[in-house]
Amino acid sequence: xxxxxxxxxxxxxxxxxxxxxxxxxxxxxxxxxxxxxxxxxxxxxxxxxxxxxxxxxxxxxxxxxxxxxxxxxxxxxxxxxxxxxxxxxxxxxxxxxxxxxxxxxxxxxxxxxxxxxxxxxxxxxxxxxxxxxxxxxxxxxxxxxxxxxxxxxxxxxxxxxxxxxxxxxxxxxxxxxxxxxxxxxxxxxxxxxxxxxxxxxxxxxxxxxxxxxxxxxxxxxxxxxxxxxxxxxxxxxxxxxxxxxxxxxxxxxxxxxxxxxxxxxxxxxxxxxxxxxxxxxxxxxxxxxxxxxxxxxxxxxxxxxxxxxxxxxxxxxxxxxxxxxxxxxxxxxxxxxxxxxxxxxxxxxxxxxxxxxxxxxxxxxxxxxxxxxxxxxxxxxxxxxxx
Length: 387
What we know:
The structure is a single chain. The chain folds into 2 domains: about 180 residues, 3-Layer(aba) Sandwich (Rossmann fold); about 190 residues, Glycogen Phosphorylase B (Rossmann fold, 3-Layer(aba) Sandwich). The protein contains 15 helices and 12 strands. β4, α3 and β5 form a beta-alpha-beta unit. α7 packs parallel to α9. The longest helix has 20 residues.
């Protein structure tokens, strides 16, 4: 029997976030008959280390900068000691770090780069350093959004046959047969209220102000029926968080909000909710929409990325325009008016949709095919600058 392909999954950190969750889910779901996985955080670990499968070793390099030459030597040792066959990086900082290691000859393993960049709507540039890192240091490019794939070809100059759309998936096992958190009891919410969970770290990209403005458009009876529980870090951007809390108070919607902070029991929290909401102004997913659907929750999610484009109009949720508090308010109002049984039916349709299209096992199988084609091309001398 052939030896398994040894994959080094790499990301900046193991803090809670969409790209980090994607990397972990891929690492955990690769076919163990064909792949052996090591996970490397180039900067620091974090809570998601504990969610790695038992047979996935985690290593942290603790690098302090993209061009940390000492850590390149540490990476070289890791690759040699683990006899790594292929590197799969997530995030542009990590990609450039691996590309530099390749350029110096410290690392020779083929390199698959998974791009989650969520700011193309404001920054479509491809500076020389980024172009060179992609063109010379990456063998295969995976974009989680078609706009990223188009950018990789037209702006970054990658050959189209090295660029692949790879929509994110969700590990359904995490959201199956969970023990729901009683959110009404934990946070003292009214028994008759509809509990809507927002999963979003307090960062400007997540655009909490649009949610607050949308809430302010609700009538008093509608407000009394709606409790918003916000799950996410409050320390990522303290100034933004302070501004958000002040704004919610100024708009008179702070009594509708419960700030739950970071949680390590998201499947259980979602299991105790009636619906989900996210009002990001720019995303390439967002991944949390799949988590809502996996939890059989109806949702309101601003239409910002590949996932919302795929599910918009399919009857599994409401997808108003980003930064439009009026549209978000109308969507939220419609959801609140929907009878409980119909909300549950919407949730069931969402769960069926992820099972048929977004199951992590489906996505991972496609990634395994990319690994195989990358290794074949590199060995034939047909990809990138790989020796």
